[in-house]
Amino acid sequence: MTSRIAKSCAYCDGTERPLTREHIWGETFHDRHPPHTNFSAKVPEEGVKSDPVIKDVCDKCNNEKLSPLDAFGIGITEKYFIPSGDGVKPPVHFDYGSFDMFSRWLLKLLYNDARACNQQVEEHAAFRRYILGEAESPHNFNIFGVLLRPARVPKELVAEVGTDTIYPRDNTMAILVPPEQTGDRWKLGRMIRFRAFIFFVIVWNDEVDLRARRETQQAVVGQYQCTHVHPGRSYVDLHYTNINTMRFLFDSHQNDFESVKTLPLEPSNV
Hints:
By secondary structure, the chain is α+β, with helices and mostly antiparallel strands. Helices cover about 30% and strands about 20% of the residues.
């Protein structure tokens, strides 16, 4: 994946400072626990072994404004995400400390992916000042979280696959397609997964009232069995999802296990 040609900073629009490389996922995922297979909205079924970069962030924004978010992400990744590649026992008490730091970090990663893919860039760019810590938290987005369940390999196929349980050991970003019942109530829906931890970020259309938003939230929670990450709290208790688990596993592990797509995998309680 290559970056688009940029002449101004993707965050401050400045043209007077040199542009630096910004890692799409962040070096954390490779330096702390290599190797990783990462997926993006541009190549949702083709993993990339090395972290793609995009050169469109000025050195001031990158080193001064975004650096604290990177440090925050390292802490969360080492405490929760990396260990979850060997399975989790729900409920997981996910203590993210600060909603603003956590949401800004997620939005930063998703904005990176949007620019690299050249998809929905303007929708993500609307959060630039918030990501930089220069604006209050917007009221037009929500975050939901859930855990991905491992899959058990049938006994007769363990020797072929090389393991009896497939764990979620990769990272994924994708565009979230609105369920049928939500209509056009949101203008941006994204999914980002760190191994077993899945987060949905939904940005609402401005004309959607509170009642319609609550109805849609209930639909999303019902479909994915996820939990609302509340802006007024510093933690959330996450549980297993019971939908699309196999699809996640098929897409995530095809580079490691080519035969996984054809396996009759079943959810595992491990």
